[in-house]
Hints:
Distance between the termini of chain A: 36 Å
Order of helices and strands of chain B: EEEEEEEEEEE
Oligomer: heterodimer
Number of strands of chain A: 11
Radius of gyration of chain A: 13 Å
Helix content of chain A: under 10%
Order of helices and strands of chain A: EEEEEEEEEEE
Strand content of chain A: over 45%
Structural class of chain A: mainly beta
Radius of gyration of chain B: 13 Å
Number of strands of chain B: 11
Distance between the termini of chain B: 36 Å
Number of helices of chain B: 0
Amino acid sequence: QKEVEQNSGPLSVPEGAIASLNCTYSDRGSQSFFWYRQYSGKSPELIMFIYSNGDKEDGRFTAQLNKASQYVSLLIRDSQPSDSATYLCAVNTEGRRALTFGSGTRLQVQP
Amino acid sequence: NAGVTQTPKFQVLKTGQSMTLQCAQDMNHNSMYWYRQDPGMGLRLIYYSASEGTTDKGEVPNGYNVSRLNKREFSLRLESAAPSQTSVYFCASSAQEDSPLHFGNGTRLTVT
């Protein structure tokens, strides 16, 4: 079992819809969770991070964390074609001093 | 405000050649990292440095060495390049170990 798992996609949504991206992790001791966006040929850029159970909202983005079920989600409201990218989930894993990344979900927003 | 600067952006090596990837950050961050990214594999940690003067192996350290020259700079060296090291390499830094990572623009390395 991978430590951080994401569906590779592509996840295709129409413009204006809500895109829901999911990430599961294996270490129950994980404390910090991050979502990065990566455009093709570019470096990852931080979208959001969340430390506590529940929801955290920032503009069109909402991160949801459920530690009991060991998943973290990213919702993108009013999706735009410019949101088309690969979204990487990253988790801090107990015993390691660096983040562990999932392999990413490719999102396509259709105009 | 440059953030994290990596050089070079592109490099082609022949098998057996050596090279050093340079990374510098101007955010006064304590921790620095080297990741590689391959299709379908996500980002995998090669080495990291929690603070100046310390370095530790990550998930895929074989074939690489690192130097934390000072608080700003963290270099990655390939002593004898192999085709399996063809990848995109990202340097990153963070204020602390669990803080968000800030990435450089990457180095695309091809080993023939």
